[in-house]
Design goal:
Elements: E1 21-33, H1 36-42, E2 48-49, E3 56-67, E4 73-85, E5 88-99, H2 103-114, E6 118-120, E7 123-129, E8 132-139, E9 142-151, H3 158-163, E10 171-185, E11 191-219, E12 235-258, H4 259-263, H5 266-273
Parallel strand pairs: 5-6, 5-10
Antiparallel strand pairs: 1-3, 1-12, 2-4, 3-4, 4-5, 7-8, 8-9, 9-11, 10-11, 11-12
């Protein structure tokens, strides 16, 4: 077998993440209305809610079968729809979970390049039989998400207006807010975020299919490390089963924050990226999950 090297010629690196795309994604997209107090609590203060009385949660669970930068992997994500910064509107991601052969490269490239709040988990299962689909996400021995949907129609009519154009061959723009930051040591050796950058992540999704569905059940086990259940389900809105390809059109800087305003963001960004073991003096986990 040919061995690699810790030195790679610079010209070869011009191909690094060039034309990054998540091709042939297949899986579930699930939407619900959550508690307004919860949505405001977890959303960084620099962002507003377009509809503060009826905040919506967006979640997805897909097999990314042909990423351009890694072997296939499974990915699950959860965030708040309808966030706004000045004239920009989009999604604020709380957390993404990854598993499978390409998960490590998917995690590292997403976190280091874009600031996506990604973690590794033990298991993501998405299955479909005829018109019934089921998803499970397990992280650190907790079943942080489980749902069942039925293909046919949405739970609420409001969903129809937002997804009427997702026919085979259609393309749709996507936009989300992400934070990148620099960690350094402050007074008394405390870690601080010296500065932070708010990025606008601009993407496009090309659809092979989008099948409306109703949510039959959702359950989320509480977890100190992966608190998806904080985004409690107040009203199921609907779901879909889709095959699509997603690619990054570009990222741009929306704002830069420094000193206290930057450091205060750590309270909002920590749980999506790190575990409680990094801030506790007593921690242990035994066995294989």
């Amino acid at each position: 077998m040919k061995n690699g090297s810790y030195f790679i010629e610079r010209e070869k690196l011009n191909a690094f993440m060039k034309g990054a795309a998540m091709n042939e994604e297949e899986g579930l997209y699930i939407f619900w209305e959550t508690d307004p107090k919860v949505a405001r609590r977890v959303l960084p203060p620099q962002l507003e809610l377009i509809d503060p009385e009826h905040p919506q949660v967006y979640s997805y669970f897909v097999n990314i079968r042909e990423p351009t930068f890694a072997p296939w992997y499974m990915e699950a994500g959860i965030g708040i729809l309808g966030a706004r910064y000045k004239e920009h509107t989009g999604l604020y991601f709380c957390n993404l979970q990854l598993s499978g052969p390409g998960a490590q490269m998917g995690l590292l490239s997403g976190r280091e390049m874009s600031g996506l709040p990604k973690k590794m988990c033990e298991k993501i299962v998405v299955e479909r039989n005829d018109d019934i689909a089921h998803v499970v996400v397990e992280a650190k021995g907790r079943r942080i998400f489980e749902a069942e949907i039925e293909i046919g129609s949405y739970n609420e009519p409001i969903m129809e207006a937002g997804f009427t154009d997702l026919v085979p061959g259609a393309s749709a723009d996507g936009y989300c807010f992400l934070f990148k930051y620099d960690i350094c040591s402050g007074k008394d050796d405390n870690v601080i975020l010296q500065n932070a950058t708010l990025l606008g992540y601009d993407s496009v999704t090309d659809y092979r299919s989008w099948e409306a569905a109703s949510i039959k059940s959702i359950s989320m086990e509480p977890s100190l490390d992966d608190p998806w259940s904080e985004l409690v389900v107040i009203k199921p809105l609907g779901a879909a089963y889709s095959i699509n390809s997603n690619w990054v059109r570009g990222m741009h800087v929306l704002a830069r924050f420094e000193e206290k305003e930057s450091d205060d963001l750590f309270s909002y960004l920590f749980a999506g990226r790190y575990d409680r073991s990094t801030i506790s003096t007593g921690h242990q986990r035994y066995g294989q999950y």
